[in-house]
Amino acid sequence: MYIIKEADNPALQKLAASLIRELAVYESLEDICTATSDDIEELFSDGLLHALLAFDEAGEAAGILTYFYMVSTFYGKRISYMDDLFIREKFRGNGLGKKLITEWEGIGRSKNCCKLEWKCLTWNKPAQNFYKNFGGIMDDKNLTYYKILADE
């Protein structure tokens, strides 16, 4: 049994920042994860970042799903973009990921989003299978490009 909460106060937002750091370590990306707790809290306070936090019966943080909104000019509606989905290791394999992503889908539907969107690391085959089972469709028609603007 897990409880899902929106990160809607400073204490939960600070916890979200901590879980984001744990995710970076899990993905071996801690060297590029430069966001501080203050940075993450500012994104929340500006209304740019949203998060669902999962807790076990004892109140221990078990996982996080972060998301934000983009727009589709072709549909004239919002897109809900999941940036992070992370389940702490001891809580994996118990349906928590499905519970979080289903909760996020419900939020997307309630906000009249035209689609949900996310990325997955190429090496993370378990996540790819999870997303496929969720109904995710791999986009092989678009390539992702980026340009780093920080520290130039």
TrEMBL record:
InterPro entries: Acyl_CoA_acyltransferase (IPR016181), Diverse_Substrate_AcTransf (IPR051016), GNAT_dom (IPR000182). The lineage of its organism: Bacteria, Bacillati, Bacillota, Negativicutes, Selenomonadales. The keyword Transferase applies. Residues 1-152 form the N-acetyltransferase domain. It comes from Pectinatus haikarae. The keyword Signal does not apply. Pfam families: Acetyltransf_1. Keywords: Acyltransferase, Transferase. This is GNAT superfamily N-acetyltransferase. PANTHER family: DIAMINE N-ACETYLTRANSFERASE, GH14572P-RELATED.
